[in-house]
Specification:
The protein is built from 24 helices and 24 strands. It has about 700 residues and is α+β, with helices and mostly antiparallel strands. It has five domains: about 5-60, Orthogonal Bundle (Helix Hairpins), CATH 1.10.287; about 85-315, DNA ligase/mRNA capping enzyme (D-amino Acid Aminotransferase, Chain A, domain 1), CATH 3.30.470; about 320-395, OB fold (Dihydrolipoamide Acetyltransferase, E2P), CATH 2.40.50.140; about 455-520, no CATH class; about 625-705, Rossmann fold (3-Layer(aba) Sandwich). The strands form six sheets. Strands 12, 13, 14, 15, 16, 17 and 18 form a seven-stranded antiparallel beta sheet that branches. Strands 2-11-10-3-9 form a five-stranded mixed beta sheet. Strands 5-4-7-8 form a four-stranded antiparallel beta sheet. A hairpin with a 2-residue loop joins strand 4 and strand 5 (about 130-140). Helix 16 packs across helix 17 (about 540-550) and helix 18 crosses helix 19. Pfam families: BRCT (PF00533), DNA_ligase_aden (PF01653), DNA_ligase_ZBD (PF03119), HHH_2 (PF12826), Nlig-Ia (PF22745), OB_DNA_ligase (PF03120). Its cofactor is Mg(2+); Mn(2+). It is an enzyme of class 6 (ligase).
């Protein structure tokens, strides 16, 4: 290969690897197997060895992962969380040892290695100060990670306080994962609830850690093993094995049963073969073996490259696959209306499990994969758990086969399906009226922050839904009419419906409590009403922003109606709303453009009282001020802080810009605080914010509160 050909191929490999890095590390939607990724990465490294000038700073070989999404605060590490080089066979392991000898300039062949199971999970870092967990973050790109402290605190295996004696400061690194049985139970429950299943335990763990609401994370069966450290204020252990023992003594989980110290690479290979036989009976998924030099001093001598330690390597298991027939391509509708193509397969056994269905992820992926009805396809178990279609066997393709054509309407409700710009997923716009989404829609409608109907839980919703009593949110307000023993003989209640108070688990008091809660919920704030609709991308903050701007449901609907009928002025007005991005605007318009959704909203408007927002008094002390809260607060909740500021006339924003007046920063504040300082925006700690409010109440000059 000449230099021009090498550069062209290198550019293509960089493009592919950057893209797959983003899909895997940031979006948690990998499109290729680990084995295929490793093949591409190995080809890149081979090219750079042959043509060193290609190893530029932006090459994937110089990076650890991918830049994280700014959904959470960002933390910058002094010591990066590095990746690992991979070995595909025994020859690579022997070359690994040879490189170590060359680096140390020794022929010594009795290096002691420590072998650890490579847990198929999500790498995180836990920061302990004076024995207390003060911060937790994802790996991100190795240097910049997302702060997920509240989510990590929900994992029972992780101690909030270390056992004494502990170092004054310690960064612990480890893997968050889900046991196989727990994963199967989780997917089984999601299937019952009409939710899309997770592809594998790693994706489930990653998705759980990315929940903005930590109470949702708490519902997931997450676990944790520690395997290393970052910064630490203690006497350094003499070996990696001693390090693991110390971590265990502090109360941190360590996979001691899956760890073995060996005398040489040959013994490491023997242990790898033993694991290959045992992997199917383990309680959790592993995808290989990590082999490290055990001696800490030798580790220091060897050092690291920009992306991986020289003293460690991962020896991955080979992928498992079988060939079968793709009998059809179906679609399933997820909780948020996501439309996912699904491969219907001729049943085939892969690693002892019979496979008959496999997700095809999204229509863009399906188009690239180009598998067709009647094709012979290769099926693998991703993470050795969930099946995925890897490729078609082209030489066996039928002469009359045709590429798959995605549907234009939801197969459940007939509403149009739509793809937003920049989003790989397609969505059903049926919203409130799509039965595939209805149970989750109803659960969201009655939740706290929406209509907050106490006593109408998920199990009750499922029962009432199965009986045809509630299909849409407006049906909830007729439950008393349908389920009260005094219901009219002339109403339209289905025959044979048992009054609520006569049902198992209910009584007169609990039934009346539910009916009273429903009646009480009929008076609802505008922001709660908007949030209750479950429009994709419109959370509590976005709903508050829309409510504050448009003041009444009538005004909001008028703006949306005008926008749908091609009014550029109103469309621009929506787009200019700070905190409401183009994707959210598109989702709003799609939702209200559906006649069934619009009819349902009109029904609700006639049933409930939606409180209008009155114009604020002109003399409120924070009138016209734009405030951003970031980090965690200790003396008050985030909602309390934001509501307090809004009551004084402030506008709450979720992003920092030149138009921001004050940033209130608590522990864990990251990129928003840095941006505020860069823009020279006034920043206050939580205590300074409280003092600032007190000064306003007493009429003192607010500038008396010093800036951080």
């Amino acid at each position: 290969m000449d230099p021009i050909q090498a550069r062209t191929r290198h550019e293509e490999l960089c493009r592919q690897l950057h893209r797959h890095n983003h899909l895997y590390y940031v979006l948690d939607t990998p499109e290729i197997t680990d084995a295929e990724y490793d093949r591409l990465f190995r080809e890149l490294l081979d090219l750079e060895r042959g043509f060193p000038e290609l190893a530029t700073p932006d090459s994937p070989s110089q990076r650890v992962g991918a830049t994280p999404l700014e959904k959470f605060e960002i933390i910058h590490r002094e010591r990066p969380m590095l990746s690992l080089d991979n070995a595909k066979d025994e020859g690579d392991l022997q070359n690994f040892e040879k490189k170590i000898k060359n680096k140390l300039k020794t022929s010594h062949s009795n290096f002691e290695y420590i072998c650890e199971m490579k847990i198929d999970g999500v790498a995180v870092e836990l920061t302990y100060q004076l024995g207390k967990l003060i911060l937790a973050s994802t790996r991100g790109d190795g240097i910049n990670g997302e702060v997920i402290t509240e989510n990590i605190k929900t994992i029972n295996a992780i101690p909030l306080v270390l056992k004494y004696p502990y170092p004054s400061f310690l960064e612990v690194r480890g893997e968050v994962f889900i046991h196989t049985k727990d994963f199967e139970d989780l997917n089984r429950e999601r299937t019952k609830n009409g939710q899309p299943t997770f592809a594998n335990p790693r994706n489930a763990a990653a998705g759980s850690l990315k929940q903005l609401d930590s109470s949702e994370t708490a519902k997931r069966p997450l676990n944790f093993f520690s395997y290393g450290i970052g910064k630490a204020e203690w006497d350094k252990p003499k070996s990696h094995f001693e390090l693991l023992q110390r971590l265990s003594s502090l109360g941190l989980p360590v996979n001691t049963k899956g760890t073995k110290v060996v005398k040489n690479i040959k013994d490491a290979i023997t242990f790898y073969k033993e694991l290959t036989e045992l992997r199917d009976v383990l309680e959790f998924e592993i995808d290989g073996l990590v082999i490290k030099i055990n001696n800490s001093e030798v580790q220091n001598q060897l050092g690291t490259t920009s992306r991986a330690p020289i003293w460690a390597i991962a020896y991955k298991f080979p992928a498992r696959s079988e060939e079968t027939e793709l009998e059809d391509i179906d679609v399933q509708i997820g909780r948020t209306g996501s439309v996912t193509p699904v491969a219907i397969l001729k049943p085939v056994r892969v690693s002892g499990v019979t496979i008959s269905r496999a997700s095809l992820h999204n229509f863009d992926h399906l188009k690239r994969l180009d598998v067709r009805k009647g094709d012979q396809v290769i099926v693998e178990r991703a993470g050795d758990v969930i099946p995925q279609v890897v490729s078609a066997v082209l030489e066996k393709r039928l002469a009359n086969s045709e590429p798959y054509t995605p549907p234009t309407q939801c197969p459940t409700c007939g509403s149009k399906i739509h793809q937003e710009h920049g989003d790989v997923n397609w969505y059903c716009t049926g919203g409130l009226t799509c039965s595939s989404q209805s149970i989750e829609t109803l659960k969201h409608f009655v939740s706290k922050g929406a209509f907050d109907i106490d006593g109408l839980g998920e199990s009750h919703i499922k029962i009432f839904h199965s009986e045809g009593l509630i299909k849409r949110p407006s049906d909830i307000f007729y439950l008393e009419q349908k389920l009260s023993p005094q219901k009219s003989l002339f109403d339209h209640t289905p025959q044979g419906i048992i009054p609520l108070e006569e049902r198992t688990g209910w009584g007169k008091k609990s039934a009346n409590n539910l009916f009273e809660s429903i009646q009480k919920s009929k008076s609802v704030s505008l922001s709660c009403f908007i949030y209750s609709l479950g429009i994709r991308g419109i959370g509590k903050t976005s709903a508050n922003i829309l409510a504050e701007k448009y003041k009444s449901i009538e005004h909001l609907l008028d703006i949306i109606k005008r926008t749908i009928t091609n009014s550029t002025k109103e469309h621009n007005d929506l787009l200019r709303t700070e905190g409401i991005g183009p994707k959210a605007v598109s989702a709003i318009l799609d939702f209200f453009d559906n006649p069934s959704n619009y009819d349902e909203i009109n029904k609700l408007i006639h049933i409930v009282e939606i409180q209008k927002i009155s114009q604020p008094a002109l003399n409120l002390p924070l009138q016209g001020k734009r405030i951003v809260f970031t980090g965690s607060l200790e003396s008050m909740s985030r909602d309390e802080a934001e509501n307090g500021a809004k009551n004084l006339g402030a506008t709450i924003s979720t992003s920092v810009s030149k138009g921001t007046d004050i940033v209130v920063a608590g522990p864990g504040a990251g990129s928003k605080l840095e941006k505020a300082k860069k823009l020279e925006i006034r920043t206050l700690t939580e205590k300074q914010w409280v003092d600032y409010l007190e000064n306003l109440k007493t009429g003192q000059n607010d500038e008396e509160t010093e800036q951080t």
